[in-house]
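Sanity check. The docking grid for zinc ion depends on where the pocket ends up, so I'm generating a full predicted complex first rather than guessing from homology. Inputs follow.
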Amino acid sequence: MDGFPLSITEALCLGSSLALSGICYYLYRKSRTTVDKLDDAPHLIIDGNLKNILKVTPGACLQYAVIEGAVRPVGEPLTSHFQKEIVGVLQKFMLREHRLLWNSLSRTWMDSERVLHERVNAVPFVLVGSDETAVKVLCPLQASGVYMEMTHEKFHQVNYGLGDIVGQFLSGEKLKGQLEIEEMLKVGASLTGVGELIMDRDGSLNLRPPSNGSQYFLSITDFETLRGDQESNAVWWKVLATGFALAGVVVLLWVGRRYYRHLKIRSEREKERREFERLQAEALRARLAGTAPEALQDSADVQIENACVICLSQPRNCILLDCGHVCCCHNCYQALPQRRCPICRQNIRRVVPLYHV
Ligand SMILES: [Zn+2]
Ligand SMILES: [Zn+2]
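Predicted complex below; grid placement will be based on this.
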């Protein structure tokens, strides 16, 4: 696209929409693969038969399987800090600070959040089925999915005095308060696990993160809900990828339209220049046929006196119509950014060569 300027905004819009579309498409493919793997994973019931299934499986290992069972601690369970009757096997405690920050651009107070403290406690646990068969869950914190329940949530609001309010307006920062959250995976909760199922030499069963790169899931919802969430993620990424790709196409069409118009103007100007040169040559031939050499000399002098108002170096050699001004040379006329007379700003409809007789 010789000489065709692609504006920075267009280049940025095109680049970012294509890049975002690519990222969203990659995430869509990833979510889609996860859903396909979930669909292919066998659903196994935790009972005495599970060991028999694993015994006949090569390596006593199923790379991706779905199991459901009730959570039971291997040793002493953890107790909630806030409700002593709640016991669990995983516990997450978080303290978040909420502030309002003055945004001088939008002239409003904006919410801002900061984690002050976060602590995770875990004890080993198993999933038990209908009989006493148990599957130990390894590395539960590496799993995706919702497997904790909120057991405590409290917002500690800050009370202000007059001095604090003055200070806040001076510093542009207001402390709203602190949010205290405790989440737990409770003992007895029904948990769906999707991962690698393996039987150790001693006959104990374990669920662990898959070694083939598949996603490890633990969820207190049932399998269908877990799969549905993954499916809707995939749909969202697909919608976003398509949206960004369409935005890229729109930018491309816009640039294409501009390029087409640029080419059209260029070819029109070329045509105009050739027509002008033809008329000029015709006029010169007529002059040579009808005038004496001295007269030609005179007219050349007149032309140099009447230099083009734009470049000041070429003689004025064209008449701009309809206004009729003779003010520039044809090269300068062609270089005008808009087809308007540089003297009176009237639209130029046609241009004809000027010749003296
Ligand atoms: Zn000129
Ligand atoms: Zn004019």
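Relevant for the grid: Residues 320, 323, 325, 341, 343-344, 346 surround zinc ion (ligand 2) (CB under 6 Å).
Also worth noting: The longest helix spans residues 223-290.
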